Amino acid sequence: MTSLLVLLLLWAFPLSNAKGRLREFQLIKDNFTRVAAVNACRTKYTDLATVYDQQDNIDLKTLLIHITDGSNPSGWIGAEIGNSRCKKWSNGDEVTFRRDFTSYTDSRCASMSANGGWEFVTCNLTRHFMCYKQDVGRASYTLILETKTWFDAQLYCRENHTDLVSIHNEEENEQVKNEGNKSITPFWIGLLEDSVEWSDGGQSAYRNFTGEPSGHYIFLIKMGIGIKVKAAIIDIPYATVRQDFAKF
């Protein structure tokens, strides 16, 4: 399908700050292939939208809510399933410190065991988890003795603390291990390994899949009616045409 030449801006949001990144989302109310969407965003704006956290997802969802033509609209975002895996901390920090990994599976989220070692297991397991709160000059750690999946733990930490804990050296690893002694089972830390890549090169570890990824490109969909509308990220084949989220 050929895209139209005129890009119509449906809605604009004020600048938001996700981990220090100032962005303004725009929804282009038109149909594009994924390649055409990338070209349109990079020509007139910055790139397809990178979703860093729940607030970004809510803002994009709100753009879709304002489409009231009776359709079930959806829009491209900048995520795609790449050909290789990479490790990323939930808060976007660079991965500069690693421990030996065990228990590799297709879905990889990291947890810490009682001896301070790390293991990668499926992200859908439920475990205790370690949050951190960033104060001036230092981070404080809090072990949460509730069991959640890695992504639910990430959401909890972001809503109630700063994020899932990231570890940058042996000293921090020891501090997290000591704080985690109250858990008799391994607990989640903020390290994720998957093959999701973002068009602008962002290192977002936010995921909100409706199921296991099965395609290549990812878009945002509107689900439900009125206040029950919920946004989710799912996979679709490349050739499908969807509306386009751009960002400044």
Automatic annotation (TrEMBL):
Entry keyword set: Signal
Cited InterPro entries: C-type_lectin-like, C-type_lectin-like/link_sf, CTDL_fold
Gene3D superfamilies: Mannose-Binding Protein A, subunit A
Signal peptide: 1-18
Top-level division of the source organism's lineage: Eukaryota
Residue intervals of the C-type lectin domain: 37-132, 136-215
Name of one Pfam family that matches: Lectin_C
Protein name: C-type lectin domain family 20 member A
Organism classification: Eukaryota, Metazoa, Chordata, Craniata, Vertebrata
